[in-house]
Amino acid sequence: MATTTTSTVQSMPGIGTQFLASNSANSSSPTGSALNEQDFLTLFTAQLQNQDPTSPMKSYQLASQLAQFTTVEQLTQATSQLNNIEQYSGAINNGEITSLVGKNVTVQDSTINVSSGNVANSLNYTLSTPSTVTYTIEDSSGDTVYTGSLGTQNAGAYNVPWTGKDSSGASVADGAYTCTVTATPTDGSSAAAAVPTNIQGQVYACNLNANPPTYQLSGPTGMQIPVSSVTGVSSN
What we know:
4 helices; Immunoglobulin-like; six-stranded antiparallel β-sheet; alpha+beta
């Protein structure tokens, strides 16, 4: 048994190197078989006890493996510290997210929701120059249900005046519709281009379990929007 142990341990090029390789390979292993500092010391001690007396470990080899052990210990401590920092940052981030509950926010979005035959939210846009404006409403399948022309509008803030009707004047089915606003500057300075749209509403609640986290606007049945889509905040 001793001979087997001796040949096995002496065949290792370096206990620290072996430890690092095993720890890296098993970092995501569900079996949890990664070596730790105690395993490193056990192997290192076994290597010293079972080395060939006629060819003992050189001092530089000993120093090298001890240095590797120190590196492993420091990496373990660094990993623990990073985990603590991650948890702390997550707690701060969650606190910032929940602080907007009750605030009025502006959210970059192009969705108009229809509920019980009525438009449930107002979609807004801003023109930087006088432009000729049109808008298109599409359903969840990407089919156009309505196209409206708003004529020439001066620079300023506006909202999409869609009333939840299709091109024939019939009420559309309840659901989410996508609106695209297109503006063509009247001075001919540029071609027609889509204009960013947004929704404004009060944050009723937030869902930290969602990925990414979301806000719920304007009551318990309000629309859910990603936290990252908020572009502005104002008090009541």
